[in-house]
Write a structure and sequence with these properties.
By secondary structure, the protein is an alpha+beta fold. Strands 3, 4, 5, 6, 11, 12, 13, 14, 15 and 16 form a ten-stranded mixed sheet that branches. Strands 1, 2, 7, 8, 9, 10, 17 and 18 form an eight-stranded mixed sheet that branches. A hairpin with a 2-residue loop joins strand 13 and strand 14. Helix 2 packs across helix 9, helix 13 runs parallel beside helix 16 and helix 15 packs across helix 16. The radius of gyration is 23 Å and the shape is globular. The chain starts with 6 loop residues before the first helix and ends with a helix.
Length: about 550
């Protein structure tokens, strides 16, 4: 059963802050690694606080390709340990976050003159299956010859088509996966403060980092949060946090921008179930075309980025690059910029690799280091392996707690075999509600076993069963659930991350923005000025996230 996780619990936790009772660990960063670390440390019994200047997953963790994958592409760089680890973690998520992480078949066409020959692809597929210990959803299949490929995926460019591989990874709603970790961290007593910015890092008499001076972005209040160890899990922002305590810090991050575009599903002739993994004709880098509910996602780019990390643009060049790939692989699609329903840009937190020749060859493995004393940073890695990354950075923090403060090490949490909220029980197999089947399917996929609670609330109050946007499965009952149990504090939180209306809705959620502001304001006690601020916050979100 979910515990309340709302603006009320946030306010209570803020009121309970005390300089006389420091946290064992303060985590900066509410992305998947940060909340994963909060979950892990709190489940071990440590006192944990987490801050983020925005919403959970409002940075890189909601800007992914929505795939939990074993890293097929890393085989060419001989990163076998990374592939093995990713395959294992994919299986963990398929088992213990079954509503949010679902099997995704992928189709990989092979062309003459491409990077991968057909024999090389066969070898790669067998290596992929072996590294999964043959525990993937299904074993791969090979299609030899253009006729067999076209029968499986009609519409593909057939010039030079040699064959194709068909294999499995998984897809996920990345923001909701992050949220599920935050919910379980809260259940384990972690205090979590979205919309709290770090203005500076504090140090004790020994010169060790001992907490942070922060500002509540919703109230404007400034205060200190005291902690024995601080974990920096801010991804691309890691260098900025370190520099607060060590002005001489030499940057270690090598941010890489990834752009995705979203087009209506009917505009691209995918076969209805398989995602496509293709080589970009411009540079040979891998790009995915992924069916997702009512749309198709195309991405991603991979270019070094040294601009404003809080305002990552989607440029005309980014869009043209991805459209060119789609039109190359599907010659009859004739996609144009007018077909782009929305888009997003994110920055990968890659650590500098002196041996890398380009962005794509930079290692996705993570690094953990302490600099200065008291500040432990984790950077790099990938969405799929977040649980291991979280466990490892908590291990490092705990060793510092024991060494410097005599706090005994506590038993590790078995997060490998622990269901995330929504997957505690088998998912409902049939629609037991009075809601339409498309609504019920959506609720189960996003909320798992708690779909029944949302449906029950809608049945008890028929207005809550109404669709938020016509022809889409989102209903108003989800907003109440998000406010009470998912710490949705702004319309942006709900439209861009608790749901996917920013991408699915024809007008990116603007058509319901006023009603949403009205409903949230009534619950949270907003005056007219605050309502105007929150309305504009979402319009700004569209401008950044959707690339307007």
């Amino acid at each position: 059963m979910l515990r309340e996780f709302s603006h009320t619990t946030r306010a209570a936790d803020l009121a309970a802050l005390s300089s006389d009772d420091p946290f064992d660990i303060l985590i900066i960063g509410g992305g998947i690694t940060g909340v994963g670390a909060a979950r892990d440390a709190a489940l071990r019994g440590y006192r944990v606080a987490l801050v983020d200047k925005g919403d959970f997953a409002s940075g890189t963790s909601s800007k992914s390709t929505k795939l939990v994958h074993g890293g097929l592409r890393y085989l060419e760089h001989y990163e076998f340990s990374l592939v093995f680890e990713a395959q294992k973690e994919r299986r963990v998520l398929l088992d213990y976050a079954s509503h949010l992480v679902r099997p995704q078949p992928l189709f990989f066409p092979v062309y003459k003159g491409g990077k991968y020959t057909f024999p090389k692809m066969i070898a790669g597929m067998w290596a992929y299956d072996v590294l999964s210990l043959f525990r993937n959803v299904k074993r791969h299949k090979m299609f030899r010859g253009a006729d067999k490929v076209e029968a499986a995926m009609p519409g593909l460019r057939n010039e030079g088509l040699v064959g194709a591989a068909n294999y499995y990874d998984a897809n996920t709603h990345d923001a909701r996966l992050t949220l599920a970790n935050a919910q379980q961290a809260r259940d384990a007593q972690a205090a979590q403060f979205p919309y709290v910015s770090v203005l500076g890092l504090n140090k004790d008499e020994q010169g060790r980092v001992s907490g942070a001076h922060v500002r509540d972005e919703l109230s404007g209040d400034e205060f200190d949060i005291h902690a024995r160890i601080v974990i920096n899990a801010t991804g691309p922002w890691a260098d900025q946090i370190i520099a607060m305590a060590d002005p001489s810090h030499e940057p270690r991050m090598s941010p890489s921008k990834g752009v995705h575009i979203v087009i209506p599903k009917q505009r691209l002739p995918l076969n209805g179930k398989d995602a496509l993994y293709v080589e970009a004709p411009q540079d040979g880098r891998p790009v995915f075309l992924i069916p997702w509910d009512y749309v198709t996602i195309i991405g991603t780019t991979d270019t070094f980025y040294d601009g404003d990390l809080d305002h990552v643009p989607v440029t005309d060049e980014d869009v043209s690059y991805l459209l060119e790939i789609a039109n190359h692989i599907f010659p009859d699609a004739h996609l144009t910029e007018a077909d782009v329903q929305s888009s997003w840009a994110g920055v990968r937190p890659l650590v500098k690799d002196s041996g890398a020749t380009d962005e794509g060859s930079t290692s996705r493995e993570h690094s953990i280091w302490e600099q200065p004393v008291g500040l432990v940073t984790i950077a790099g890695g990938k969405l799929t392996t977040y649980r291991v990354m979280a466990e490892q950075v908590v291990d490092v923090a705990i060793s510092k707690l024991q060494e410097r403060f005599g706090i005994p090490e506590r038993k590790a949490a078995d997060t490998e075999h622990m269901p995330l909220p929504g997957a505690e029980y088998p998912l409902p197999a049939t629609n037991s509600s009075t809601l339409p089947n498309d609504v019920w399917k959506h609720l189960v996929q996003d909320y798992g076993v708690y779909a029944k609670d949302i449906a029950r609330r809608a049945e008890e109050s028929p207005p809550l069963a109404e669709r938020i946007v016509p022809n889409l499965p989102y209903i108003w009952s989800e907003l109440e659930h998000a406010i009470i149990y998912e710490m949705a504090l702004t319309p942006s939180d709900f439209l861009a991350r608790r749901t996917w209306l920013i991408y699915d809705a024809p007008h990116r959620g603007q058509e319901v923005l006023d009603e949403l502001v009205h409903r949230m304001g009534n619950v949270m006690g907003w005056n007219d000025q605050r309502r105007a601020v929150e309305r504009q916050r979402y319009l700004d979100e569209i401008g950044i996230l959707a690339g307007n």
